[in-house]
Amino acid sequence: MVDEFDASYENAESAIQRWANRLxxxxxxxxxxxxxxxxxxxxxxGDLADYYVPTLKSHPGLxxxxxxxxxTVQPEFSTAVTDWDKKDFFHHVFTMCRDRxxxxxxxxxxxxxxxxxxKGDQICVLLGCDVPVAIRSDSNGHYKIxxxxxxxxxxxxxxxxxxxxxxxREVQHYSxxxxxxxxxxxxxxxxxxxVGDPRLGDELPSGWQRVTDIERQFWEEHVHDGASSTRTYxxxxxxxxxxxxxxxxxEDIEFS
Length: 256
Known about the structure:
This is WW domain-containing protein. It is built from 6 helices and 13 strands. With 256 residues, the chain is α+β, with helices and mostly antiparallel strands. The strands form 4 sheets. A 4-stranded mixed sheet has the order 2-8-9-10, with no helix packed on it. Strands 1-3-4 form a 3-stranded antiparallel sheet, covered by helices on one side. The chain is globular.
């Protein structure tokens, strides 16, 4: 399914109702969470208050978003929500879904993609690319990129490393010193933040070393054999040779 968003704030509520009615909202998502949570994450592009540290008060939270979603689809069976929560959620959906479409995949993932995406296109994770992308094949077996996408349960390197450990989620951590947000991993059960991916452990390939901020709370770079010219934000364990060592099935594709 590829269902384009009606590009106006006034149509946000009807679009949400239409999308929810095309899904089995009583079922669980592929990652074990509720489909209601997954749909909220999808149509908000994962950009919710809970995915920032400290919590971003200008964004709707996941719990309030799920409540509005349920109230929109089945108001007679859900908890009452405030007009402010509705306005906040609908405006955020409009912002994130403008020029986008909701899609479902054969693996039962859902997400948002460029509105030009068509049925039969594929969602692909590319080495070195921060987000999944929609791609389309041609008659010669080559591909072209349609654009970036957001897929709950597939946008934090799950395609290469599998799901995050229970309780972990990838969040943006604000540094007052630099005035920037950095992607880190939050253990919601302990409140602990770590820069490195918990699925990869601490060991690096031979010759590689970490360089981090003093608190190890914001950023991490990697240097090979101490040479500053090799300094990179990319994790050396997420290269083709290292992933193949882990048994990750990779495929080479050509773009036209």
